[in-house]
Amino acid sequence: MDRIEGQIEERGHWGSKAEFLLAVAGNVIGLGNVWRFPYLCYKYGGGAFLIPYLVFVVTCGVPLFLLETSMGQYTQEGGITCWHRLCPLAEGIGYAGQLILLYSCMYYIVILSWALFYLISSFSSQLPWASCDNTWNTDDCVNLAAKNLTLNRTTLINSTPAATEFWERRVLSLSGGIEEIGRINWEILLCLIAMWVICYFCIWKGVKSTGKVVYFTATFPYVMLLVLLIRGLTLPGALQGIVFYLYPEPARLFDPQVWLEAGAQILFSYSVSVGTLTVLASYNKYNNNCYRDSLWLCVLNSCTSLVAGFAVFSVLGFMAQEQGIPIAEVAESGPGLAFIAYPQAVAMMPLPQLWAVCFFIMIILLGLDTQFVSMEAVTTSVMDLFPMILRREGRREIFILLFCLTCFLGQFIMVTEGGIYVFQLFDYYACNGACVLFLSVFESLVMGWIFGAERMFDIIEDMTKSRPNYIFMLCWKYLTPLVSVVSFVCSMVEYTPLTFNRWYVYPDWAYALGWLLALSSIVLVPGWALGQLFAGKGSLKQRWRHLCSPDPELPLTCKQRAEMKETTFTAEMEDLVRANID
User: Fold this and answer.
1) Among residues 364, 310, 313, 307, which one has the least CA distance to residue 341?
2) From the annotation, which residues make up the binding site?
3) 20 to 30 Å CA-CA from 250: which of 76, 103, 329, 375?
4) Over the stretch 93-121, which tens digit does the pLDDT of each residue have?
5) Distance between CA atoms of 541 and 548, rounded to whole angstroms?
6) CATH number at residue 305
7) What does the alpha-carbon distance between residue 408 and residue 261 come to, in Å, rounded to a whole number?
8) CA 128 to CA 52: how far, in whole Å?
9) Is residue 573 part of a domain?
């Protein structure tokens, strides 16, 4: 038996504090900071959008960020087993979070394959999205980057920009709908394979390899962002774009959709409620100051989003001025910004290949560490569930390889002609804000009331030697669950079915599939709790008490040790007094 146990590998720790900080920064600072936050800010009231954004930062983002990093550092466990040790009744939250991460791993890397294809295309003598002389172009194609081009509104309505045709007809080979899956796009498939190979070798040795890779993947995007920011601010029309980005519209604050979008952006941008932060913090040493780390990482995340907006809208302002049209007509979000609007703007600049290469390197690196850290979170959580089987020499590498192959085969359909429609289903339903909001409600309720916010405060104080601000206790017990519940209900009330390009309506079976993906994670939370209650032994009250009790093997805080000594001393004194009386 001793010989078998001796073969189990140590879980390990980060090589340095910098590795942890860079890994978390690389995970939480991703594509959403560049292509989602700036667009939301302009669309929902400019500078006024920062008010609901900051409200959600204070009530949900930072409190949950601190809570999850503290949970991981205290238990030294992954996203599932940490719940088993803190509150077995809530273990379904861990399973649900890992399922959402699994869905994310399956579709998020497709974006990186598109970006890699654009990066390779950027090395051509003429950018392929900057001309209408290619085999994929139609008679309606118009090259907006052409010099001395005279445009009017009628021309724009009746034509298709070259960048749009490159995206839809060359990269996606877009079919007529999800019913028409069509052929495999072999070039995108090869790019996808390349990205999976890179991600595999980034995490195959665990934190030993991840901790070294993030020194590059988490820092170099900032170099690219700075370069693009300086270039954008020096373009004509940049000021117009920035004013459009931040001009406040206070009236929009009365629109519930503005608050919903702000809440969803915070939850995704901060990567809370899905277990990623718990896993990353679990590789810290017990006495790391996770309280200070969490505050600074949250500040870095939000500041990056704000600065990225200047880089994006300065370029969109330039493009609008060059075309002589309002910025609202060129502003895009998501893939539309990264693969149509920005490449189109780059094509209008001097040295377009240089700026295209810089932009797509930044996009790839921003998404890369988000992808491989999510993979690390899932694999670590599963390995912590089965340490006797998976934590043996050579088995981690095999398990990660099988995980990559499973995700790759599952996403194969996304690189077909109808793949973008499946991609949108995953993005809109499987990983949507409502699922994460649902988890955040129960996470804060369980840790605030069942495990105990006061106990969590003692744990953080014991680990960091500093007691958190009292506002965090108020958030965990009241504000975070209240805000999350209201946002979840509103998101259900305000639900609108998914469409593609504002014209394609999915068939009913596709919507049913989307809801199945969304509910697959949500039902795990109550389903696990009810299953454990029914499967347990004893009375219902005994089962409830057992499932709400933390693992007695968890580390004791200084306060708990002092209380135990006092209890032991009191008991010994009582025994001594009783013995003397006898």
Assistant:
1) 313
2) 26, 33, 269, 301, 366, 369
3) 329
4) 999 999 999 999 999 999 999 999 999 99
5) 11
6) 1.20.1740
7) 31
8) 41
9) no
